[in-house]
Amino acid sequence: MRLSRSTIVAPVPGTAQALIVQPLSGQAALVSGDDADALRRLDGGGALPPSLPEETLRAASFVVESDEEDRALEARARAEYLAEAARTPVQLVVVPSFGCNLACTYCYQEVFDPAARALMAPEVVDAFFAYVDAHHGADRPRPYVTLFGGEPLRDTPAHHDRIGRFLDGAAQRGLELAVVTNGYDLPAFLPALAAGPVKEVQVTLDGPQPVHDARRPHAGGGGSFERVIAGLEGLVAAEIPVNLRVVADRRNLPALPALAELAAAKGWLDLPASRFKTQVGRNYELFGCASRQRREDLFDRVELWARYVELSEAHPILRRFHRPRFHGIGHLAETGELPAPNFDSCPATKKEWAFGPDGSLYGCTATVGHAAHVLGRFHPEIVRDEAAIAAWRNRSTVTIPRCRGCALAPVCGGGCGAIAWDQAATPLAPDCRPVAELYGLGVRYYGLGA
């Protein structure tokens, strides 16, 4: 008998407890620190204490007899993962233009070719939908379209025309459409968005007015906060689902409680999750630092969420504002169950494609617009680099050499392929995630050890 190679032992910070997780069987349990140490010593021939019944550990697959038993566990879990993945819709990310009306301090797209700031021509919109018909017309479930940028919602006649074309094309094909916007010109588009078919609108708000305006000013000068608030209020009034996003680093995280108080005062936190949800994203380097992005301001993943946990303990309003996932601990707290294992956290060319304004084809949101990641074209004709596509499509914890045998792989999923490529010049490298540390923080945040 030994500890399964997929069993994760995660100390809970500030306590004498640890969480043990077997992601392949979906089992988790809190144990004492001494019991956690005993489990770690099993491989060296250690004995189990009476507080850890062998029968219980075996039933949960925390312990196994052999490598064959571990392989069988993984095979069953992977089959379940693939079945679930087949039920997940494909996201088709379209960038009508890389041009933007804001001048955010951390914009990773500032190094992109200025020519890409031109607005997508009508014939390129038509070519996108022709590509959808050719390559995703039979997809079940139906894919959905996400308009990204740059900034897709700019109050000009040409932009209104393109948004109308996307809404009409999506509706004709039974597709939903999501929009990622900075919110500055959002009020001008509310009538069209309210007519649908809109899945959700994601808007970034980085804090109360002084904080937000310092980070996300208008390109022509002045702030953007008041316009963004007006857009959010319009979305809520029109009952269009809102996904409120915060890009967090050391400079603005302390202001998050004030932003949460604002959201509560607006009544947004009283809305059901189907109408209003939040996400807190880490400000990080993607293909290098932006010119006004300071490395010393950036958190790593553990630092960000450790600080968020501390803030939420001092400011309980944050618990209403955002409920972090902590690699599935949030799901466990809400449902009593762990989510299914994740053997591939990179959706590129599998569950996500991206389309540039010039007719170029890419694998995902993170790579769209980056010349090194062009995978073909959808305009003026459809041309696909199948060898390059296969390199991304085959990426998973099964094919990444460094992921094989890693206990964290069924939770981490190999991380982001674009970040892995930037670090190792290949998607077949891992972008490792601090799973055990985040498990421990999740237990503390959700009070599972209380």
Q: What does it look like?
A:
The strands form three sheets. A ten-stranded mixed beta sheet has the order 11-10-9-8-7-6-12-13-14-15, with helices on one face. The chain has a three-stranded antiparallel beta sheet with strand order 2-3-4. A two-stranded antiparallel sheet has the order 1-5. The relative contact order is 0.13. The model has no long low-confidence stretch (mean pLDDT 95). Strand 2 and strand 3 (17-22) form a beta hairpin. Helix 4 (122-136) runs parallel beside helix 5 (157-172) and helix 10 (301-314) runs parallel beside helix 16 (435-446). 35% of the residues lie in helices and 15% in strands. The two termini are 31 Å apart. It has two domains: 2-83 and 435-446, no CATH class; 88-322, TIM Barrel. By secondary structure, the protein is α/β, with parallel strands linked by helices.
Explain the layout of strands and helices.
Blueprint: E1 2-3, E2 8-11, E3 17-22, E4 27-32, H1 33-40, H2 54-59, E5 63-64, H3 67-86, E6 91-94, H4 122-136, E7 144-147, H5 157-172, E8 176-181, H6 190-194, E9 198-204, H7 209-215, H8 225-237, E10 242-248, H9 256-265, E11 276-282, H10 301-314, H11 317-321, H12 329-335, E12 352-355, E13 360-362, E14 376-377, E15 383-384, H13 386-393, H14 409-412, H15 417-424, H16 435-446
Parallel strand pairs: 6-7, 6-12, 7-8, 8-9, 9-10, 10-11
Antiparallel strand pairs: 1-5, 2-3, 3-4, 12-13, 13-14, 14-15
